[in-house]
Amino acid sequence: MKKLLLSFLACGLLFYVQAQDESPWQGKFEQLSGELPSPNHYRTSDGSPGPEYWQQRADYDISVRLDDQEHKVTGQEKITYYNQSPQPLYYLWLQLDQNVRKDKNMGSLTGAGQLPDSLPTKFITSAARPFKGGFHIQSLKNAEGEEMPYVVNNTMMRVDLPEALQPGQQVELNLDWWYPLQDRMIYGGRSGYEYFPADDNYLYAIAQFYPRMAVYDDIEGWQNKQFMGTGEFALTFGNFRVKIDVPDDYIIAATGELQNEKDVLNKKQLKRLSKARKTYDEPVMIVTQKEAEANEKSRSKTRKTWEYYAENVRDFAFTASRKFIWDAMAVKIGEKTPLAMSLYPKEGNPLWERESTKAVRYTLETYSNYTIDYPYPVAISVHTANIGMEYPMICFNFGRPNADGTYSDGQKYNMISVIIHEVGHNFFPMIINSDERQWAWMDEGINSFLQYLVEQENYEDYPSSRGPATTITGYMGGNQKYIRPMMTSAEQLIQVGNNAYGKPAAALNILREVVMGRELFDSAFKTYARKWAFKHPKPADFFRTMEDASAVDLDWFWRGWFFTTDYVDIAIDDIKWIKLEAESNEELLAEGAKKEAEAEAAESDTARIRGPFPFKTKPTPAPYYGEFTNRVDETAVAGELEAKNLYQIKFVNKGGLVTPLLLRFTFDDGTTEDRKIPAEIWRYNESSISKLFAFDKVVVAVELDPEQMTADVNPGDNTFPNKETVNRFQKFKKNKEQIKP
């Protein structure tokens, strides 16, 4: 009964205070139904693929030659494209991503900015010596060898079909092409080569190297937005058979499983690789540093072909160099034992030999725990300077020690982080295959969140730069002119790192730790991964699954964090201590009134929890009991309430983003108590709310978000007393104005 009375009392005062606060309603708790596509037979209301869900498929058979003299890639490619949609297709769209390096491409033409008074020469090299890259399409033919008409529009190519490709049909495209590779030191880019003048060698990172099918789906139709350099890729699943022709002394790593290892590896390498497949504790050296250094001096005139097969992947990439050291170890993931591998030049040691493959292993284990078991046979980390980029089963990662082999903790942790991040991309978006061109946060942000979990669960005191709420407050509370909502197309983002990586990572961490709790979040998140593995999810599918699998209404969270640039800035505006005006409390109440008068008259004052103020009870009129014939023992209830200390706290939302209230109360005996109030407390008033708390002890201080878990951009007004309330009380004293609670 005591709890019931206090509950009614709290609710009554809550509604009374809110009724006094006049602020415009902004709809922060309105449902997202108007912003999300309507559920249908393809994508259902619970966030699942529907009974008629479909997606296209494209199989590739590619033969490619790497020319390390002229630095170019030449290829022949057969694409078998399957129309599994319910619509006939009259043309196909292919991506020509290398065309971003053509003269007068859209990315360079639309780049804006001012030239400063001075600039390091390296950064104007591309202006003095523009690189003329891009695909050279030599021929495009059908299965019968007939030329097919096509039109190239910047980074996209439309292939016109002689007749409609009906649902259930397939078509074959045969292309011959080549393109020049750029020096990444000068021109940057996600692929290309690095030159090592000390030993006159090259390290090639080859990606986006073949014309590849654009995605056609039930939401966008053809995803043929131009590649302008920022927004990444939307790709179709299929099987790849790829033959890579390189000089005989090169070591290769690629997407998929090596099919002819006996033809391209020597007996010593084969034996070591066999051992690695059964070794789980430490990496096995397939090519040692000593062997790699000897190989650097080789200049073979003969060539060999490495053959790979990759099943059900969305892309293919490879790396090649004479300089590679190579290590590998097995990882136990469910019923599978994929190989974690690293390839790196000696310039990466000793850091890479110590840390890389270990980081690959931790990533596969942790991501599998939170999503699905890693399904592919290998996961490869390749050391390439100044780049972090991901492809199925292989990724290119920066992190190079000093020339003498020494390195700082910062260098080590930066390298480990990028390896975790890029290997993690195997799950998002390589398996849970979102549209990166449109929604960067769906792969970068989700992946950065999981990267944070790997760092914290596998390394002691890891200095994670993304994930914790405190890592994003500077950005969210910064100049709104340079901030975009996360639900913004990737090519239109301004601060990509903060917007697509940092903010969504922090948002998901807050969702897990503060809003939902780990158990509900982890279960719902795993459900999302299972539903959309090897499929094409959209934002609505993620939002709906997380709600459907948890029974938590999160529309307010998605709306605020993903659709707006609001930020968290909640202030404790005032606290009023209240006691029941009873005979036993007369002395305490009189003392409280005396302190109020003294504070008003004092020359100097510090803000404090004011009171106690008197509160009276009175007999309940009969109409309030309605039809009930029984009555509350009001005398007994008043007696119980007499011992309670009531605290009416007013909170003000300055940043616009509604959030749970995490409160820590400190009592006069030095003890503390934490309370968590769900974000729904703001549902009737999004600007300011008051809430009543009851304790047996006397409260001397209150702190909001004491562990800084909500991304509040201004912790200075999260405590009471605080500097702001001190200033306000001093102003009140001078003006002789009454402070309203």
**C-alpha end-to-end distance:** 28 Å
Q: Could you tell me the number of beta strands?
A: 31
Main sheet strand line-up: 4-7-2-1-13-17-15
Structural class: alpha+beta
Report the oligomer. single chain
Categorize the overall geometry: elongated
The fraction of residues assigned to DSSP E strands is: 25-35%
Mean pLDDT: 91
Which features characterize this protein?
alpha+beta; elongated; Neutral Protease, domain 2; disordered C terminus; disordered N terminus; 27% helix; seven-stranded mixed β-sheet; 31 strands; 741 residues
Structure at a glance:
The protein is an alpha+beta fold.
Please give a structural write-up.
The protein has 741 residues and is α+β, with helices and mostly antiparallel strands. Among the domains are: 2-28 and 568-735, no CATH class; 468-567, Neutral Protease Domain 2 (Neutral Protease, domain 2, Orthogonal Bundle), CATH 1.10.390.10. It is 27% helix and 26% strand. It contains 18 helices and 31 strands. The strands form 7 sheets. It has a 7-stranded mixed beta sheet. It has a 6-stranded mixed beta sheet with strand order 16-19-20-21-23-22, with helices on both faces. Strands 5-6-3-10 form a 4-stranded antiparallel beta sheet, with no helix packed on it. The longest helix has 21 residues, at 496-516. It is elongated. Mean pLDDT is 91; it is low at 1-20 and 736-741.
